[in-house]
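Notes continue from the previous slide.

Worked example: a multi-chain complex. Inputs as given:
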Amino acid sequence: MLRSSSLQPYADDLSVEVQAAIQEIGQYFGIPNPKVLILDHWHVVVPVVYNVSLPSRGAVDGIDIREQEPMLIRLSLNSYPHAAPFLLSDRKDFPRSRLSHLYFTTDDEPARLCLVRNNPHEWFATIKLRDFLDVGGQWLYKAATGQLDEDGDEFDPTRLEGNIGLKHIYRYDLINEVVSQNQRFIPDLPAALFIGGQLLKAGKVDSYQTNAHVPFIVFEKVRNAIAILSTEENEELVANPVFTFVFWDPDGAMDNLYLTSRPKNYGQLKLFFSLRGIDLHQALLKLEMLGAIPRLGLPIVFAIKRPRRVIGYNGNYEFINFLIVLPAEGVAAIDDSRKVKLQGHIEPFSKDMAVTLSDRNQTSASLYIGAGSLGSKLILHDARSGNLQIGICDDDTMLPHNLARHALVADRLGQNKAEALASIIKQFYSADKTDKITAITSNAIYLDKEFQEYQCIIDTTASVQVMNFLISKQLPTNTRYYKAEIADAGALGLLYAEGYNRNPRMDDLVNLASFNATKIEQLRTWRMNDAQREVTTLNVGLGCSSTTSVMADDTLGFHASVFSRMLAKATTQESQGMSGILAISSLDESKGSPSISTEYLDVQAFDILNCKAGSGWEVRLMGGIKELLFANGNRQAPKETGGVLIGIANYKTKTIHVFDIVVEPQGSHGTYCEFVRGNKGLPAEIDEIKRKTGEVIGYIGEWHTHPMNLKGLSTKDEKTIAELRVLNRTVPIPTCALIVTPDELLVYVYE
Amino acid sequence: MANPTIKYFPVGNGDMSLITLEDGTRIQVDCKLTAKSDESTDPKICDVKKDLLSSLQKRDGNYYVDVFILTHGDRDHCHGFKDNFYQGDPTKYGQKERDQNLIIMDTMWFSPMIAEQYTNEDEDAHQCEAERRLDLHRRNHLDKDKPGNRIKIIGYDSNKDYKDLNHLRAVPGDVVTRFNDTDQQTFSIFIHAPFKIHLDSPDKDKNSASIVFQARFKAYSWRSDFCCLAMFGGDSDHTTWAEILERTKRFKNDVNEEALSWDLFLAPHHCSWSFFNETSEDDVQTTSLEALDYARSGAWVIASSKKIVNNDDNPPYYDAKKEYVKKLSGSDKFLNTAVEPKESAPEPIVFDITVNGPARAPKKSTGSASSSAGGAGAAGTIVTQG
């Protein structure tokens, strides 16, 4: 009963590699001259005998594994060792129906051992032939000792991989639920209908996807919808809608045997069903009569009830997927010789799968403002990680030059970027509810009620207009505003996140990045380069729609990846008392090979002072400055002290951001009733700050103390302010005077 | 859960075995370790320390065995105990001990009869550690039941009196089902020896006072039969076995507990003739042969010894092997740790315990990757080049 007895010896030349393998096999099994037999046009086999150590009272469960197991080692004539060898049983009566970890084969083929879960060729590339042969021996030992299934509480499904190329994509749970609950389409038939489609764009017309259960009550509506769709001339149709029929044993019989015969034609398929109590032909005629067979391609699934939960799934059913291509005349005209194809099952990409595969902190409901090159990459990172609550706002269309860096590809040219991305994400998650993936095709400044839907606002526009709009907007309490931009021709990535209760606010953080150029070299380089750069090439974002933006996709991708990781991390911060974030990623190629680094700064809340003169201006002091002012006041009291404020003023938002103070520049002099602020060396000091920050941060006002607790401007103060206003208007900057009393800070700002 | 296993280490003339239960509980029987065995580069010497460590579990980064059973205090059963097992207050186990890979014994099995005469420093260390633990229990110390302080007394007292600790004791005829503070549903140990009679024996020696026990595995807790019975006899001789037979049958434990049956039999005293009789000129004791007749279908005998050759060495004794083989279904059922799988590179003999009895497991690892580089062993070889 050995298969090798009917195989002919191979007499032609063998490659050096195959010869070496045969020699090694001979040494391993102690065979001086191993036989080489022809298996088929592409393969030879070497018959060997494995000694299997059986338990003292025979193989477990009476499985027919013997102490001497004749096996065939299959070698590819042309592709060994790049194509892995396979281990086949030489026995025609090998107990294949009772063993897991076998590739699906039929009775007329040798049983083929599945030695590794992953790609066998990839595995073999990492091991020696001797190891492969060892593993073969271990397989047989495990089969004999009942250890093939590492988790004995689960049933290893039929291994169809490598045997069939056609695919049927559906969610196991979807079909399992219907089958387990015996939800029949019509009472006298153990079958259910599902709607899906033939995947036209998959490149293989025999690939199908099944998406939803169709109970009889909604059948007519679905059938009519399909009929309309089928008549539409639509070149963009990605799937031909079809019904999938799922059958199960009417008696709920359990089957623990593996398939060893594969119905190859309609006659054999009918027999397969008939053995399981179903008259397939009559069933199909009935379904055809009801109008449930709209196309020639007919996917049929049979659910086999296994004794235990099937490994990798949430149920006991194993599904075998068949495909029949009907003759044009319909079911009645199918003859028994009509070919039946087997399809492999693939789980559709789903939120659960994405979450498992990504193993990343999940971001909350996120509104992305800007779906340009940076935004598109962040959006897809987020979506691929399983976030199905994504809003995308962009009024721009995909243009040819976007192909250099955008995540979208050429088939989306001319389409609105937000819509294109939303539609792609929905296609990822065909098996999930995707109604929270939304595209907003208007400009960001028209956003209003939409904010209520999201916990994260992620602005990748690099637009000051958008930033100012978002600063002015009342956001929901738990919504956090993030902003990402790439600067310095790709050398620098900046990610900002507002703090609790929007403090620090986004403009605080953006200006702080400039101020930190006084301390951090990468920021200084950026700021100084920026000061000399044309405005159009400053940042990637909206500016990217200009063909003048020069930056490689991989550079942008690097920063996008870092931002995405930072965003995922930032969303885990406790909301209460949350500090702001200024995160810096840098890519330095000035010394040859790329050098990358990141820095992560926690930014404490700013102290906010409103103008006492009623000008509507607001002064925002970086955390720590208030304390510094009080400390200086206390130290010099009862004499007055003072100095200048370092920061920036924004006329649009009527805000002065203060990041530092200069205390008593040389030449200053304080008395009990006045403070004379000197200027020796001060201009040079300010100029240096301005130079380092790219002309962004500099002198922005005066501060002095009122140790006698005068809570207002003195006459002298008013006079000085009047003089300064004339001077400052020429810059222009507003005139800001900050009074430090023993217990209060008072600001006066005048344009 | 994984199948239970029994591993017999190749330690020459000596014993070291590891029983691993399906819940991961590890029971080590005897040890023969050299302090530097894990640095050995000779392929003929199996690095048993390295293999042992790879077979153990870690808790808080520290190696431990649930139970350590010393059958008796001879050097070939406890060599390396002092240097490889942690002795002392488990709360004081620190980085230094961790760096030395010292193994914590959660529970010790201790026979008061076998360790009162000082013969070697390892035995002495074992005795001291046992007494430390016994003292904690005697003083009812708060930490007495913590892992590393647990102890079980096997057999009877000799010179010292531990009667106040009888609640910790198991004697011949007892079945133990609780190991390291956990009840086992599918594993138990039947205690055969040492007997009280050995206390009064004029030629009292450690060998005849060995702890002898039967490890019993069930496929399922509800089954009344055993899927594997493994006999561990230390260095017990034919007189002990005659006694075991007599007592077991007298109390009907051969029937009620299947206490004499075996699938795996660790040949006592490294396949020495002493299991069969005093001298080779004497006839084989019928009781010894009778004990072997309790072999179940497909049973194995394991000789934990150096290579058995046809000469006058004892142990291992060639004629003893012949006697064992007569009782087995084939000569391949007699395994000598020194030559398995091959004499040039011995490896531990491992049995998986299946529902149909023990099965000898093939090598688990898949060997080396397709590319490799020599390590300390390769570099340590002196090479002369012309």
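Summary box: Chain B has twelve helices and 20 strands. Residues 5-362 of chain B form a domain with the Metallo-beta-lactamase; Chain A fold (CATH 3.60.15.10).
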